[in-house]
Amino acid sequence: MLASVPAAHAQTPTPTTAQIPNTAKWSERMALSVLKRSPWLQDPNLGDSWGYTQGLLMHSLEALEHQNHDSRLRTALQQYGDKMVDAQGEIHNKDYKPLDNSLDNINSGKLLFQLYTDTKQEKYKIALQKLHAELQQQPKTSDGGYWHKKKYPSQMWLDGAYMASPFVAQYAAFFKEPAGFDEAAKQLLLLEKHLRDPKTGLLYHGWDEKHVQAWANPQTGQSPNFWGRAIGWYGMALVDVLDYLPAKHPDRPKLVQVLDQLAVAIQKYQDPASGLWYQVVDKGGQPGNYLEASASCMFVYTLAKGVNKGYLNKKYRPVAQKGFDGITSKLIEVKPDGELNLLQVCEVAGLGPGTERNGSYEYYVGERIKINDLKGVGPFILASLELNK
Q1: Which CATH topology does 26-386 take?
Q2: Is 86 known to be catalytic?
Q3: In whole angstroms, what is the distance from residue 118 CA to residue 297 CA?
């Protein structure tokens, strides 16, 4: 457990100045590293974002705090909630635009369940209800699949699986509205139906129902490549939705089967030398491709949690461990003060609307690579927790 910093002793080093011990678990070391380089997490007067990346980080810090009860993490989580949600339950942030009908709006809302449970502040309940109401207005494909955003008409993306379905399932459990279980499962099953490639077992990034987008296959509507992080979002969504889906829900066995099929593909495309996974998952030997951190962390989390929860065969535990060992040995840099840097994280990738985001191999490997992007840091913490590292 991380030691709390006594408020009465101002001279005690805070996470922004203290040496991070290399004897702590990887999850704790990364969390302290985030606090150290992210002043906005510790200062209630500094701004931050309702973006889905911040929501992912907050979810990972919440999971760690739930395990070790570190007061610094609790303070950071509560300050984030207070900055984002006003007394009337309105989300006030430049990055929150409900009229955009973007599934990305929903991800940060996952933290509000715990904040409401802990504080009993009505504002968090109101904000949760507003996010849920926003999803009721989400445009859908003809078979009921969420559009990723209003500006991406008739398109389902794997990214949206993680943004929306776990929230919908948790909301259903939290507020005892069982129709949400059906909706959360339906979205995941539709994505699998439209995006899974039977030859590889992998899922394409996006699907255009109309088959008219520049990136879409004219016959199938599918985008042309297997982007690691997109598949990672989907895997994490599967194991997280199963947390809330009732044991006898009719779609539960289907989702477990989908997860098992995905695990087969994840293991198949694991790089045997490093234990990691490539940016474009099935093209590891091609020029420009690289071992990408966020997808690797997400795959480790998916496999490890799947085993821990009993959804997956225990044979996948060594696969997850090999992946994690590869991350810590090849993609983690330890600074003299103990701070961890996570290397080789793809900053962003999408599909359209411009022709430059065309889903090609060259597009995915050409996107900017960053250090410590939260889309890798959050899953690293979550993967570490599942492996008790």
Answers
A1: Glycosyltransferase (1.50.10)
A2: no
A3: 29
What string of pLDDT tens digits covers the 389 residues of the chain?
A: 333 333 333 333 344 568 999 999 999 999 999 999 988 887 777 678 999 999 999 999 999 999 999 999 999 999 999 999 999 999 999 999 999 999 999 999 999 999 999 999 999 999 999 999 999 999 999 999 999 999 999 999 999 999 999 999 999 999 999 999 999 999 999 999 999 999 999 999 999 999 999 999 999 999 999 999 999 999 999 999 999 999 999 999 999 999 999 999 999 999 999 999 999 999 998 999 999 999 999 999 999 999 999 999 999 999 999 999 999 999 999 999 999 999 999 999 999 998 899 999 999 999 999 999 999 999 999 999 999 98
pTM: 0.95
Pull the structure tokens for residue 15: 């996470």
Residue type, 331: L
8 Å CB contact between 202 and 222 = no
Query: What DSSP line would sit under 264-284, residue for residue?
Result: HHHHHTS-TTTS--BSBTT-T
Domain positions in the chain are 26-386
Pick from 276, 283, 246: which is nearest to 364 by CA? 283
336 half-sphere exposure, CB direction, 13 A CA radius:
0
| Residue 57: its H or E element | helix 52-68
Catalytic residue chosen out of the listed positions 48, 70, 104, 159 = 159
Bridge pairing between strands 206-208 and 155-157 = antiparallel
Phi–psi pair at 322, nearest 5 degrees: -65, -40
